[in-house]
Amino acid sequence: MSNTGYFVDKHSIVRKIWGRADTVLFIFAGASAEFALNKAVDWLYFTGKLPADPLGRLFSTVNYARMIVFSEQETAMKAISQITAIHKGVEEKRGDSIPAWAYRDVLFMLIDYSIRSYELLEEKLSDAQRAEIFRVFSKVGEGMNIPGLPENYSEWAVMRESHLNDNLIKSDCTVDLYKQYKKHLGFFRYVILMQVQALLSPARVKKLLDLKESGIFKPIICVYKLCRKINLDGLLKEAILPANYKVQIKALDIKGL
């Protein structure tokens, strides 16, 4: 059966990565650290939606991303157009343009944390699989008309390092956003978030946020991976996930991938 009707090939590693709830949550847990440091984070504060409801904002972003990954070409392109229109609307209200590098940063984060999260929870990716992840999200960027995108994975890796060095700073927005994370997650889940970020974040992010890995958290991840294999991970998820979002999180798991 042909897969040409889908934005992402049915056998793509991207579908496998984005078809598991815990991997998706790890992607956004890692990205939430870098989001807080980005020099353009004030754009997310402009609407007030991010600090008011960081979890709601997370699921809104996840829904758009997954609509693109798992939809047919036409539906995916409509989702991309809708994302672009939302950003243009914010730009019009503020009377300014979101910098092109900020758009690239977000796209680069999706590539990087997809790789890091899958490798932490599953297995090492091949060079071909990494290149496939790059191609999928590069196609999203092209659909959004983001300028200055890299031509291939190798070029992306160089640009990614440059962006990490040039576009991150610990600001008042950073401090406030972490206060909101803690407020909305509660102390226990906030500690888990910080540990996941410490495991996933690039060195530059760890340094700016002073993220330190706990000696016991890597073994906990190993136990969790074992629980996944014997289908006991659901019990752990029930214990640690926010009650208001359990239904949405369960819906992130796609069977048969």
From TrEMBL:
Residues 47-177 form the ER-bound oxygenase mpaB/mpaB'/Rubber oxygenase catalytic domain. This is DUF2236 domain-containing protein. It holds the Pfam family MPAB_Lcp_cat. InterPro entries: MPAB/Lcp_cat_dom. It comes from the Bacteria. One of its GO terms (molecular function) is oxidoreductase activity.
